[in-house]
Write a structure and sequence with these properties.
The complex is a heterodimer of chains A (362) and B (159). With 362 residues, chain A is an all-alpha fold. Helices cover 69% and strands 0% of the residues of chain A. Chain B folds into two domains: 1-36; 57-154, Alpha-Beta Plaits. Chain B has helices at residues 2-30, 74-78, 117-121, and strands at residues 57-58, 66-67, 84-92, 98-108, 128-129, 144-146, 153-154. In chain B, strands 3-4-6 form a three-stranded antiparallel beta sheet, with no helix packed on it. Classes of the chains: A mainly alpha (362), B alpha+beta (159).
């Protein structure tokens, strides 16, 4: 096979060995960390801002409005202007708040989502952390964010924040099960927890296509559960505006509030990219059949673009959910999880295990 | 067994109704109907406000520069924050009767909350709400307006 120009393994390895030659191993490693950190920081900020912009435009179109369209062409710089505004705003100190926890909470939330982003495979070789237990790592890290939410609610010295945080806790504990189990179905199919390995196992077809109905069920369950896990509508009880002002971040202002806001949207991006990686073939192009022109045309599109297209579509579906469905009550939320999603998931995983044992999947 | 069937039916019915909802918003997303957002500074020329819009209090005058205000002062009494001052003067009619006519109907736009009590309580319907809403000025004194035009008089039929 000819050299694949879309394979980043060589490039990253060359950069690594170049650094090793130029300086001592310790310094090379440190430089690598700094480069990766800066790249992810930039990616994080830009993606977060443009998902927020996208959400505002999409919800506007769904409501027959226009949305932000003044700052820059088609309002593209609106969220950047908003960020600058939030940076210059006053950080209001809260009386009787637990100062330390109050200040730490936004950072915990944002660090949790930042850690999860490191494991996401953007293309072959374009992945900062490729653990053998990648899925396990992502699930563990992405649910750390709720600690920040609980701390924010607890330390704010406000009943709205506390109620919002408690709701969020109940929600995450419930829906984490469904997220984990639905990902587990694909782990059973592909036989590996390594994210790059899961993508390689989809070279001959995405799991949502070749995984029969159980994969489809798992995908739908994952969509619902991950929407709930990211505290987004219709499951945004943690910040139910009509009941709790703004929920757990009621007392936050300025850039600390922006951290919560950005982390919420980046969590949406992260769960969308997990869905892409696990169910929709990651950066694998769309193929029909084995060897035809359509497949070759699809191969020309770079994997990063494929990855972004798929992630953006999942993000769009989650926004579609938010702007269509009314918010659930807390008892309805728990009923949905414990009486519907969890039993379906358990049956589903048994079916998948059976299919794999019999070797009935592709 | 029946409960299991009902359970599955419930789930399918739930999915169907959710999909029905998503179809509606999806349809609006791909083919938005009438966009309700007003592109304000650009459409300033053709912008038409609706009838019930409370812009500012005005006193309509007809083509003969005549209004309907008798200067009774009911609007002044009803104004909750003193935005209206009625200045009247006495005048002798040709047949020797002394009548009160309006001299100045002073309206402080800067204090007005647009509650509409003056318009509602006016016994002779002399006041109305205008459609003008671009009221920003650089000098606060410009917000104090005389509603009756200079040289105007009261209509004959309003007495």
């Amino acid at each position: 096979m000819a050299v694949n120009i879309y394979d980043f393994t060589e490039l990253t390895r060359n950069i690594g060995s170049g650094l090793q030659r130029a300086m001592s191993p310790g310094w090379a490693r440190a430089t690598e960390y700094v480069i990766i950190g800066l790249a992810f920081l930039l990616f994080y900020a830009v993606t977060g801002l443009y998902i927020i912009y996208g959400e505002r435009r999409i919800c506007a179109f769904m409501q027959n409005r226009l949305g932000p369209n003044r700052v820059g062409p088609a309002g593209l710089f609106q969220t950047i202007a908003d960020l600058i505004k939030l940076l210059t705003k006053e950080l209001i100190p809260i009386r009787n708040a637990d100062k330390l926890l109050f200040n730490v909470a936004p950072f915990i939330v944002i660090i949790a989502s930042f850690m999860a982003i490191a494991a996401i495979p953007f293309a072959r070789g374009l992945q900062a952390l490729d653990f053998e237990i990648g899925i396990f790592y992502v699930i563990a890290v992405s649910s750390l964010g709720v600690v920040g939410i609980l701390l924010a609610g607890w330390s704010s010295n406000s009943k709205y924040s506390l109620i919002g945080a408690m709701r969020s806790g109940a929600q995450i504990i419930s829906y984490e099960l469904s997220v984990g189990l639905s990902l587990l179905t694909i782990v059973v199919y592909s036989g590996t927890m390594q994210l790059s390995g899961i993508i390689e196992s989809q070279a001959n077809g995405w799991w949502i296509f070749k995984g029969h109905i159980p994969a489809l069920v798992a995908f739908l369950v994952f969509l619902v559960a991950s929407t709930a896990e990211t505290n987004r509508g219709p499951f945004d009880l943690a910040e139910a505006e009509s009941e709790l002002t703004a929920g757990f971040h009621t007392e936050y202002s300025g850039i600390r509030f922006a951290f919560f806001f950005l982390a919420e949207y980046m969590n949406m991006f992260i769960v969308a990219s997990i869905a892409t990686t696990v169910f929709l073939g990651g950066w694998m192009p769309l193929h029909f059949g084995l060897n035809n022109t359509f497949n070759h045309v699809m191969d020309i599109i770079p994997p990063v673009v494929w990855y972004l297209i798929k992630t953006a579509s999942v993000v769009f579906v989650m926004m579609w959910f938010k702007w269509t469905f009314p918010r659930l009550r807390i008892d309805q939320l728990l009923t949905l999880e414990w009486k519907y999603l969890l039993p379906i998931n358990l049956v589903n995983i048994v079916v998948v295990a059976f299919l794999c044992l019999m070797g009935w999947h592709f | 067994m029946r409960s299991v069937i009902n359970y599955i039916k419930e789930i399918l019915a739930g999915i169907r109704t959710l999909w029905a909802g998503m179809r509606v918003t999806g349809k609006y997303f791909v083919s938005p109907g009438e966009i309700v957002t007003q592109k304000y500074p650009e459409n300033r020329d053709e912008l038409v406000m609706f009838d019930r819009f409370k812009g500012e209090v005005i006193m309509p005058h007809d083509e003969n520069n005549q209004h309907r205000c008798t200067g009774c002062g009911i609007c002044q009494m009803n104004c909750p924050n003193g935005s209206i001052e009625i200045l009247t003067r006495k005048e002798m009619t040709p047949d020797g009767k002394e009548v009160r006519i309006i001299d100045k109907h002073v309206y402080h736009l800067g204090m007005c909350t647009f509650c509409g009590l003056c318009v509602k309580t006016c016994p002779s319907n002399a006041l109305a709400f205008g459609q003008q809403f671009e009221n920003a000025v650089f000098d606060r004194t410009k917000l104090t307006k005389i509603l009756n035009k200079p040289g105007s008089s009261i209509k004959k039929e309003v007495k």
